[in-house]
Amino acid sequence: MQIDLIRLLIDFGLFVLIWMVQLVVYPSFAFYSKKELINWHQLYTPRITMMVFPLMAGQLLTGIFQLAKGQSLFSIISIIVITTMWLLTFFIFVPTHNKITSEEVDDEICTKLVKYNWLRTAGWSFLFIWNFLQYYFR
């Protein structure tokens, strides 16, 4: 299987996953009591990480490979957006989820997750759509 198809499949996986998180998972947090959210979050976080981390790592590795194979506008912008997604994840989302896990839940956490996750939703949607167009219309 060629690297471009692998990358397209990974981008599609992140596209579907991020929209599900944005429209279903994060908004649902507001319907839990503090105790229920903490309990659910302890189950949810490792499970979602098992899906998200391999996709993010695969996207980063294929993005680096594509950049090394030949620098193009697509490969350069892709690696910039991918790096931005990693930075957002590890500097905004991981600390926010850690607050929930450590029982530092307040009313604004759910709102913050939904609000800031639009950045990742936009980034991963952009990457998938552009990659799809690149793959099928080159």
Question: Keyphrases for this structure?
Answer:
single chain; 138 residues; mainly alpha; 4 helices; 88% helix; elongated
Averaged pLDDT, please? 95
Low-confidence stretches: none
Overall number of strands: 0
Query: Roughly what percent helix?
Result: over 70%
What's the alpha carbon Rg, rounded to whole Å? 16 Å
Secondary structure tally, helices: 4
How would you spell out the order of helices and strands? HHHH
- Main pleated sheet: none
Assign an overall shape: elongated
Helix/strand class: mainly alpha
Strand content: under 5%
Distance between the termini: 18 Å
What does this structure look like?
The structure is a single chain. The model has no long low-confidence stretch (mean pLDDT 95). The protein starts with a helix and ends with a helix. It has four helices and no strands. The protein is elongated, with a radius of gyration of 16 Å. It is mainly alpha-helical.
